[in-house]
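Readers outside the structure-tokenisation community will struggle with the description of the input data as it stands. Showing the layout once, in full, would remove most of the difficulty. For illustration, here is how one protein appears when written out as sequence plus structure tokens:
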Amino acid sequence: MKIVVTRILVDDQAKALAFYHYILGFQPKDDIPMGRHRRLTLTSPNDPNGVELLLEPDTHPAAQAYKAALKAEGIPATSFAVRDIQAEYTRLCASGVQFAQPPTVTGSTTVALFDDTCGNLIQLSQRH
């Protein structure tokens, strides 16, 4: 068994696609119309056949409440591993990404937390 798709709830799929593709660097994979929304997935450029990130609309009231509660508590919606967190932090800051927490060492991992502009906090992590 393996993970093939994971999702992130977003408030606007077009805005999310722009952020996750152009700012974070994920590559679009599927873009399938589904009524008012789309099945919109991206993958890592280093693993185009790997796990897909589904940008799922947060149209259900429970989804909106869940996202808001996580964000209010400073809990990330998901985490992305990076090889050099300081370089990613510098690159993303230069692109205008707003960080809630700069790179911080937490035991054998360094983590940073940023706002994805779509209602979520996202964690970057680098293991040492």
